[in-house]
Amino acid sequence: RMEGQGSYTLLTGTEYRGTLRDGMFDGEGELVFPNGGRYWAVWHRGVPTQGKYTFADGLKYKDKKWHYCDGYDRRFYTEICSGLKPAGISQLTNLDTPRKIPEGCYDCGDGFYNPETRVIVDYKLRFLRNADDDEHEWIIRTCRKAWDETIEHKPKP
User: Fold this and answer.
1) Helices H, strands E: what count in the chain?
2) The dihedral formed by the CA atoms of 42, 47, 51 and 57, expressed in degrees to the nearest 10
3) A cellular component term (GO) from this record (predicted)?
4) Beta-carbon count within 10 A of 94 CB
5) Which of 9, 36, 72, 115 is the most exposed, having the fewest neighbouring CB atoms within 10 Å of its CB?
6) What parts of the chain have a pLDDT lower than 70?
7) How would you class 113 by CB atoms within 10 Å of its CB: exposed for 0-12, middle for 13-18, buried for 19 or more?
8) Can you tell me the distance from the alpha carbon of 26 to that of 47, in angstroms, rounded to the nearest whole number?
């Protein structure tokens, strides 16, 4: 079994870098996700006991009193870092030019969701997972969908 310092790449493309013991994550280690996000944690027998997630753009997740993109301050992280766009030019996602969502699908944050098949694929259209009832309801209720009205704008070169 794997033992000591090392790295391990899962089939999903996620890479673990850190300490391994008896084939499990154990001690300090970090998961590096294909989308650029990172989860650093202290692991015990494969289970994180404490950890911190950092999104690909540098935004650090807080599990308590996290007011990112809530009713008090609805700015995206790129708007917090770079400022708001001029009046009349809305930013629909944290990406300056939002992804084009396939017809009939939703953008659920780590990929696209098709409510007919209940399948989530990554942004390169590779299978990620099947949505359970709770995730299905959350996506339908909160995520941006392909048929939302959008106003196109082209940034100045």
Assistant:
1) 2, 10
2) 120
3) motile cilium
4) 19
5) 72
6) 148-157
7) buried
8) 8
